[in-house]
Each structure stands twice: as C-alpha cells, then as structure tokens.
Amino acid sequence: MGCLWSKDERPAAQRQSNAPSATSTAAAPLVNEPTTVSAVPSSSSLAFVKALPAGAVKAQCYSVYDGDTLSLTDRSRVRLLGVDTPELKEKEPFAEEAKRLTQSLCERREIWLVAEGDPVDKYERLLRWIYVPAEGGFTCVNIALVEQGLAVYYHPSGSSSSTLEAVLLQAQSVARSHARGKYAAFEDADVFVTSNGRAYHQRSCRHIAEVRIHVIKKSAALDKGMTACRTCLSGTT
C-alpha cells in the first residue's frame, strides 16, 4: 500500500490555518509501538489539522477490531463516524489493509474522541471522530482511511449530515482519482438510484423493483455521498 500523500490535497483555508499545533508529535504507547505501515498521513493530507476540534476527549486505544471499530482501555467500543471499511468477517478486499492502517495510528496509543449527533449506535458503540498526534498537529483517522481508498463515506439513512461530509467526499474523490486502495481497479458504470435513497443499486436489486428509479454513473453516486446497497454487494439481489 503505497503512500501518495506527498502533494498537499487540503483546501486552501485548511492549509493556511494558524491554529496552535500539538504540544508533542507522538503519544507514548501503552505497551509496545504498533507496527509501522507505509501510508502515514503527513501535513499535506486532507486528514491533517493543526488543532483539535472543540470538545475533544482524550482516551487510550486498547485494540483495533477492524478498520472502523476499536476498543478503549475501559473496554468501551468505538465505531468511527462517517466511514465504512470492508468487512473482515466476509473477507472483503482491503479489509486487512484498513485494519492495519487504523492499528498503526491508534492501537495502544493516546487518541482523542470527538462526538457528533447520536452518541452511540444500536450496538452501544460510541460514535466518534478519532484524532491522533501527527507532526505539527493531528490526523483524523476517519478521513485518512477514506483518503487512502480503504473506506467509503457512510451516511446512514435518517441521520443528519456530518460537519466533515465535504472533506470526506473530497478525500474519496482523491482516492479514486489516484487509484488508491479499493479504487485501484475502479471501473465506472451505470447504477440505479431512487429520489431519496442513500444507496445505489444494481438493476436486479429487489429493493428497487417497485419504485421509480434513475440511472446515473457510479462515480456520480459516490460524489453525492451514496454507498453501494449491501444487498447488491452480498449478491443476494
């Protein structure tokens, strides 16, 4: 998984921020240093910020379950907001890579949690943006995963738009344009959407069998923040 974060991809306003920087560049691990991976976000990344958002709460990551789920030392489980990574249990492509990136940034390290919207999901997991120390500031792990093509923007039906929606969609576009991660073999194609749905479908999907649908390109659906229908992905349409 090569690192393509050398070019500054952040918006101009973010690059010019004069917010105070982090007081240290790395947090001491609880037990051992996590394994280093090649894709380490730099200050040119969309995931980089000079200062933590208001309300950030310090915590310690105990372990990482998969790319978008981890546990804290108090055994609380955390689900990363705004993103969805490939499933390990189903052995989906890039699930292991997503887990390794989150491990390299979080496991046995000091992290900062930022809440927005619903505090927990139906599984009682904390829903949070996660930030970790980086040279000169902090990295948002949620955005880093999307920027490396290891997660997609995820906006569950019925939930309100997030404050980071625009930057997550920009990170997703960057990943696709650079053929990173799951976009390495991306091929645009027609997909089918409904007027108010948050997912795009294959034509054979049972969920759109009796509703009015529209045809758009998959790239356009992604740029709108839509995600693939889980039924279509499972092949049980």
Which key terms come to mind for this protein?
5-stranded mixed barrel, 237 residues, globular, 6 helices, 2 domains, 25% strand, OB fold (Dihydrolipoamide Acetyltransferase, E2P)
Question: How would you spell out the order of helices and strands?
Answer: HEEEEEHEEEHEHEEEHEH
Radius of gyration: 18 Å
Q: Pick out the low-confidence regions.
A: 1-6, 15-29, 31-38
Largest sheet: 5 strands, mixed, barrel
- Share of helical residues: 10-25%
Q: How many domain regions?
A: 2
CATH class of the largest domain: Mainly Beta
Total E-strand runs: 13
Proportion of residues in β-strands: 25-35%
Shape: globular
The whole-number mean of residue pLDDT values reads 84
- Give the neighbour order of strands across the main sheet: 2-3-4-7-6
What's the architecture of the largest domain, going by CATH? Beta Barrel
**How far apart are the termini?**
32 Å
DSSP helix count? 6
Q: Might you state the CATH topology name of the largest domain?
A: OB fold (Dihydrolipoamide Acetyltransferase, E2P)
Structural class: alpha+beta
Structure, described:
The chain is of the alpha+beta class. The chain folds into 2 domains: 12-185, OB fold (Dihydrolipoamide Acetyltransferase, E2P); 187-237, no CATH class. The protein contains 6 helices and 13 strands. The strands form 4 sheets. A 5-stranded mixed β-barrel has the order 2-3-4-7-6. It has a two-stranded antiparallel sheet with strand order 5-9. Strand 3 and strand 4 form a beta hairpin. The radius of gyration is 18 Å and the shape is globular. The model is unreliable at 1-6, 15-29 and 31-38 (pLDDT under 50).
